[in-house]
Structures are given as structure tokens and as C-alpha cells.
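S.,

Sequence below, as promised.
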Amino acid sequence: MKRRNFIRIAGGGVVLAAATLTGCAQTTPAEAIEAWQSAQREADPRRWVVSHAILAPNAHNLQSWLVDLGTPNEIVLRCDLKRLLPETDPFSRQIMMSQGTFLELLDLAARERGLRADIELFPRGVSAPTDQLDGRAIARIHLTADPMAKKDPLFAQILNRRTNRSAYDPARPVPEQAWKAMAEAAANAATPLRFGWAGPQQAEVLKRHRDIAIEAWRIELTTERTVLESYKVLRVGAAEIAQHRDGVSLLDPLPVLMNRLGLLDRTHAPAPGDFALKAQVNGFNEKIASTPGFLWLITDTNDRATQVAAGRAYARVQLAATAHGVSMHPLQQALQEYPEQAGPHTAIRGLLGAVQPAHTVQMWARVGFAPEVSPAPRRGLAAHMAVA
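The prediction came back faster than expected:
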């Protein structure tokens, strides 16, 4: 949006502008988050565990999960190949982590129902980490009644978990017991990995985290094909959110108003100096400046099974954080493997100690305390059902 268009909107006077923006204030529509209320109501055990699994954190909230319940007592998980991120996630590493977050919540839900979930990864083989994903199953899960199945206290946080992209309270650091709980959650994951964190007591390190995050975000917003990929799944206003129930929701009054007036063009990348682009950059920079802590997960390898396991670990870490009231927001931009991000990608690896070529920073996130936000939209159980 060009600055003159903004002036045209606001130029009618402060009172009119304030009234218009107040009228645009919206909340997440109930139908978009109904899956968060209905998960507990499913009677069939497999549908019950899958209803909890689809509440997992996932890349760009694409919800790239297809589930086959055609065989009794089994669940087959496939990746929805129509829901990938070829520009920002060219090797589908984040998408595979999202399969892992799904499997972790599924396992937690199964235990809660007195079931053992035997998870067989890639029963028909697996693609290489640099190859395109195909239609082969990610996992085959066999559910068996097991009176010895040990419930996990992290299950209780599934319905409370949120990805919070708000500004955090810079004066309220994450307490030691919360970091310890997150580290323990990561240690109980299915693969060896390194969990690390930085807080206000490491002021210079924190500054380097912030600088890398800001530069990586700027690159993604100013690279045409990557910003357009994000625009495709940007849902502006309650009506779009209710229609799609996926992607990244935007309910801020100004962009909602711009969208209503046809001034929010998502078919073209913003030009340098564009008002909306500057607003996005400045808004993100303010959020990063408010962040009192960062965490990361590093694996020594990067095959598909490791990516899935890293996703499972991240789900556990976020649930542990939720139990302590701690908010979390993944910062994947600098971890992405497209050419324009080479600088931030190298910088974050160096900062975090990923020194060998195979070492992979699977997750990097800002952490802190923030006001509560609504759960992310979900497409609902029926949208994920597929036949083999």
C-alpha cells in the first residue's frame, strides 16, 4: 500500500479514522476454533486421539496432515502434498517437523486414553532430506489397549497451548524452573538433541539473537517469492479466517480496514518504501526488542526421522512452557534453506554452536510472557480424513 493511500484513509480526520478502526476490531470467529472445543467430545478412540493431534503447532499453520483410518486399530499419517512451502521451506524440513508435532500430541492423547501407540515411521520407505516429499506414509500407528500405559502430565496443556506472536514483557524474564522444565521435556524426546537458551543475563548474546532475527525477517519480507508464499496463506479479518481456518490470522484493525477498501494487495510483493512493508518490519522489530529470552534445538543429523523427532521434541518443550505460563513464537526465517537467507543462516549456526555440516538448528524461538491470545484456527477433523 502506498503512503498516499494511507493518507487518503486517515485524511478525513482523527475522529473518523478512530471510529473506522474501532469498527474494524474483530475476534477470531468461533467456527474457526471449534476444533479446540470438540476434541474431547469424540467417542471413537482413534478419532479422539487424532482430534487432539490436529491441535499441534505446525509450519505456517498449514495443517499438512492426512489421516487414514481404514484399518481397525490403525492410523496411517501422510503429508498433504498440497500444503507445502516450496519457497521458504524448499526441503520440507519444517513440514516434517510438523508431522512430528502431530505424532507427539497423538502419543500423549493415546496414553491419556489408556492406549499404547506403536509408531512405525516411514513404513514404505523414506525420501532423502533434500528430495521432494511424495505420497508415502509418514507413519503407521497401531493402537493397543494397555493398562500399563503411563499418562504424561504434558497432555493437560494441549488445549492451553498457543503460539503467541505478540510483544512480550521485557521486564519479566523466564524463571529458572521454567527453563528447567523445558530442558527436561526436550531430554525426554525420541532423539538425542541439544536444548539451549539465552536470557537477560547474557545481554550481548541476546543482542546477537535479536539482530539475526531482524535481518532474517527483513529478507523474507523483501524477497518477492517468499513474501508472496506467505501472502497466500495470510487470512485477514474474521470472514477469511472462518472461510479457510488455516494459515496466519491477522485481525489488527488497520490491515482489516485496508483489506475492506481493496488497498491490501496480496498478489504483488510490496515495493521498497511501501507503508505496509515498513509497518510490518517496525512491528516485528518492536516485538524482537521486547523479547527477554530465546531457545533452540540442535540435532547432530538431519535425516527425515530426525526432523520428525525434532518436531516431537519441540511440541514437548512448548507444552512444558505452557504449564509455566510462558509464551513461545518460532523464528524459522534464519533457519530456512533458501539462498537469500545464507547470511542469517550462517550467523545463527555460528552463534548456537552448530559447527559440523550435519548439525542442524531445527528450532529457534523467542520466549517470554505476554497477554493471552486466541488459539489458532483449525480446519477440523473431517478435513484431515483420507483413504489410502
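The longest helix spans residues 93-112.

Coffee later?
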